[in-house]
Amino acid sequence: MVYCPACGQEQTDETKFCRFCGDSLPGAGMMKLLRQEALELAAKRNGGHLTEAQAQSSQTMQAVEQNRANGGPNIVQNGVHAQSAKQATDDLKALMRELH
Ligand SMILES: [Zn+2]
Question: Can you give the pLDDT at residue 99?
Answer without folding.
Answer: 74
